Amino acid sequence: MNQPYKLTPMHAWHTQNGAQTSVVDGWVRVLAYGDSQAEIQATNSEVGICDVSPLSKIDIQGKRSGALLEESAGMPVPGVGGCASLMLRGCPKPVYVVRLHSEKYLVLAAANLREQVYSLLAEAAREHDCVHTTDVTSAYAALQVAGPKAVALLKKLGSAPIDQIQTEHCVQTSTARVWSVVIHHQARQGSAWLVLVSRDFGEYVWETVLVAGQEFGIRPFGISAAKVITGMEEIDVATL
Description:
Layout (H helix, E strand, L loop, with lengths): L10 H6 L3 E5 L2 E6 L3 H10 L1 E5 L4 E6 L3 H9 L9 E4 L8 E7 L2 E6 L4 H12 L6 E4 L4 E7 L3 H8 L11 E7 L2 E9 L4 E8 L3 H11 L5 E3 L2 H7 L11
Parallel strand pairs: 3-13
Antiparallel strand pairs: 1-2, 3-9, 4-7, 4-8, 5-6, 6-7, 9-12, 10-11, 11-12
Helix pairs in contact: 2-7
């Protein structure tokens, strides 16, 4: 029997450009665009882009949001603009916490942990006044940009001082004229960037990044190459 599956905002582009796909954790994912080894080499020498929209995304905000996360993880949360891996009680793998401002956080997790992480945080929120949790997984498209020319490419697409953003930090800025959250995180080889934009603009931003990246030798890569390039296994943010 066929099972229901979800599509990322960039799915049509993938199918029109020779992507090899498979259903992974309920999402149609790109395994490769023909040659994963070539994707690895191009990204490691120039720059590459990967569709990681299935990444689980939970919004937490309110005056006690930081306290909720600290109690759930048993350790301090990052400062405003900071990011950190935290192990929530009851969760089998770490989540990645992005602090957007003093009372607003994004919690990122592997695609297959979405329901579990949301349930844990929603249950904890019931014990705190003025804390609101929302599953925004499908509200955002997510692009991962990696490679030695990633900074030059992102600077071309917006005005934020990308080259001054330290690893494990983020900035809210405009990317290709679209509001975005840009996260600089550690990868297996150097560092990489996660760009979150409204789902409605996902395909537009994806195509704009590819056009802007032509001068840098950009190449899209699938999740087979992502495991080598970023060290992620099915978007396992424990490695972020």
